[in-house]
Amino acid sequence: MSAPKIRLDSVSKSFGGSVVAVEKLSLDIRDGEFLAIVGPSGCGKTTVLNMLAGLEPATSGTMALNGKPIEGPGAERGVMFQDYALFPWRTVRGNVEFGLVYGPAENGLSPAERTERVERTIEMVGLKGSQDKYPHQLSGGMRQRVALARLMASEPEILLMDEPLAALDAQTRVILQDELLRIWGQDRPASERRTVVFITHAIDEAVFLADRVAVLSSHPGRLKQIVDIDLPRPRGDATRRSGDFARLCQSIWELIREEAYRATMN
Ligand SMILES: Nc1ncnc2c1ncn2[C@@H]1O[C@H](COP(=O)(O)OP(=O)(O)OP(=O)(O)O)[C@@H](O)[C@H]1O
Fold first, then answer.
1. Are the beta carbons of 197 and 157 closer than 8 angstroms?
2. Where in this chain does the record put each ABC transporter domain (predicted)?
């Protein structure tokens, strides 16, 4: 088997000495895989993502990317958060371009190539015709498409996504799940896909999108189980209606049910 893209080895993270957000997490993330992380509120999902992004150091343990230690943010990793974090004074085009001007693709692109990349990425996320609009003129789903385009414009090897669809209504969310899989490349050979780490509260979302779901438990955040999602690709509405899909969602819910109830009481 090939070396993992990302390797977490016994990674722990404490805050202020007393709060143990993540404890001894060991996890290999494969090149080109879509890995979802689920778990009850407060189990350390965001902390894991922030460490992978290089925004938070681990308290102990090691984190490696392509065999090299993760010591800070890097051009090969793009991060997307739940709130769109768009610049209200920039148009769609300006927001997407920002990902390039300040992103990993900053170097080596001519102005013409940059323009071409921005237009192509806007088209890819389905926003052709809205290039000159400002964020306040867009729906929540469209804003999240802009955030996705900004992330994709710099063509990072690894996409780190923290509940990117959580703020959307149910229908928009389903549509963007489909779009995300298309953009990720579910129709292409596995070797041409990017590596995705996707945090979500929603079990059905994790099962629909991912190759594997890492289930965390809380206080302290530990890896409870990794569930292989062997649903065939490409996935779509037929996947959501299938018995296998329902069974996988149910088995993950059973893994976290007790803690999820407890989390809502605290
Ligand atoms: N900067 C911080 N300082 C102190 N404690 C923190 C900090 N960041 C996170 N924590 C604590 O670490 C634990 C894990 O938090 P984290 O946000 O990673 O969990 P989560 O699983 O993403 O939660 P949620 O699903 O509610 O977003 C929580 O107990 C949280 O209060």
1. no
2. 6-243
Q: Does domain 1-76+194-266 have CATH number 3.40.50.300?
A: yes
Ligand 1 contacts CB of residue 45 (under 6 A): yes
Residue with CA closest to ligand 1 atom 7: 15
CB distance 44 to ligand 1 below 6 Å: yes
Q: Count other C-beta atoms under 10 Å from residue 254's C-beta.
A: 9
Verify whether ligand 1 is closer than 6 Å to residue 14 (CB atom).
no
| Token representation of residue 199 | 């945090």
Q: pLDDT tens-digit profile of 170-227?
A: 888 899 899 899 989 888 888 889 999 999 999 999 999 999 999 999 888 899 999 9
Q: Given the cut 0.90, state whether the ipTM is greater than it.
A: yes
